[in-house]
Amino acid sequence: MKFPSHLLLACTLFSTAALASSSQAWNEQRQQMLKSCLAASQFKDAHARGKPVEFDDQVGYSALLIEGVYPQKHMQQRTGTELCLYDRQRKQAVVSEWNPGAY
Hints:
Number of domains: 1
Mean pLDDT: 84
Structural class: alpha+beta
Helix content: 25-40%
Radius of gyration: 20 Å
Number of helices: 1
Strand content: 25-35%
Order of helices and strands: HEEEEE
Shape: elongated
Largest sheet: 5 strands, antiparallel
Oligomer: single chain
Number of strands: 5
């Protein structure tokens, strides 16, 4: 059986569009996560430190380290790190101070 070339072309175009959409959706999700994590942070000049960790959909969370400057005057402009957990379904972020050397 011969496969018509126009069907092959159509299949290729649709599969490419699906991959692009999926990649775009991931990028949008990561941008939303970054925005939510930075908004939840208490730091001044907060920024992502490294790449996010994507947990399985059964867990539904992504994790991201946020670094910035403590805003309290008594902290004397010290930098710190927070761990942001982002709930992908609810699109909500929560942060907690992250000091791996203290544990």
